[in-house]
Amino acid sequence: MAIEITRRHILISALPLCSIACRRPAPDLSDYTEEEPPHLSSSIQVADQRTASQLLNGWYQVEGNAWRWTAQHFAAVLWPPPGSDRLGATLEFRLYVPAIVISLLKAVTIAAAIPGLRFSPETYSQPGDYIYKGDIGPGVLSSDSVRVNFTLEKAILPGQLDGRELGVIARALSLETK
């Protein structure tokens, strides 16, 4: 009986030591953040890193802290602005056609499309700044995002200037409610 009481005292006195030895340190969560998925914008300045994830394919790295070359085919995703589902919207793509593109290709024809709508092509035969516009009627922009696909009739082939296929210089892209 005395041995059993002694065992019980040893066991009871060892419990606090066990809990100290078995205790794991709290995990360090200082490098972790709770992130929300990125919010889409209806307006993209192509050099802005906050909206760079909306440039899907056919876009090259930012140059001059202000613009990007495009390939012959390029796409982006935009958030339809408030009211555009009822009132319609205007697509605007701000671009620059460099003299070297006109020198090599003579002219650049661009066209765009969103699901259910193709925009009229525009041809530029002089170097300069341009705004390619497309009209979107009411009821077309009814989802949370819209993919805009652009196509150039032709582009500078890789190797003619550098290793990339070069189309036009992109500056900005937006959807604006009418």
Give the topology, please.
Blueprint: H1 2-22, E1 43-45, E2 55-63, E3 67-78, H2 84-87, E4 89-97, H3 99-105, E5 108-114, E6 117-118, E7 122-124, E8 128-136, E9 146-152, E10 169-177
Antiparallel strand pairs: 1-10, 2-3, 3-9, 3-10, 4-8, 4-10, 5-6, 5-7, 5-9
Quickly count the domains.
1
Return Rg in Å.
29 Å
Per DSSP E runs of 2 or more residues, the count of β-strands stands at 10
Which residue ranges are poorly predicted, with pLDDT under 50 across at least 5 consecutive positions? 17-22, 24-33
The structure class reads alpha+beta
Through-space gap between termini: 93 Å
The SSE order reads: HEEEHEHEEEEEE
Share of residues in strands: 35-45%
Looking at this structure, what is the CATH superfamily? Galactose-binding domain-like
Question: What is the CATH topology classification name?
Answer: Jelly Rolls
The chain-level mean pLDDT equals 87
Largest sheet: 10 strands, antiparallel
| Main CATH class | Mainly Beta
Q: Which architecture name does CATH use?
A: Sandwich
Textual characterization of the structure:
The chain is α+β, with helices and mostly antiparallel strands and 178 residues long. It has a single domain, classed as Jelly Rolls (Sandwich), CATH 2.60.120.260. 18% of the residues lie in helices and 39% in strands.
Task: Name the features.
178 residues, 10 strands, ten-stranded antiparallel beta sheet, 39% strand, globular, single chain, alpha+beta, Jelly Rolls, 18% helix
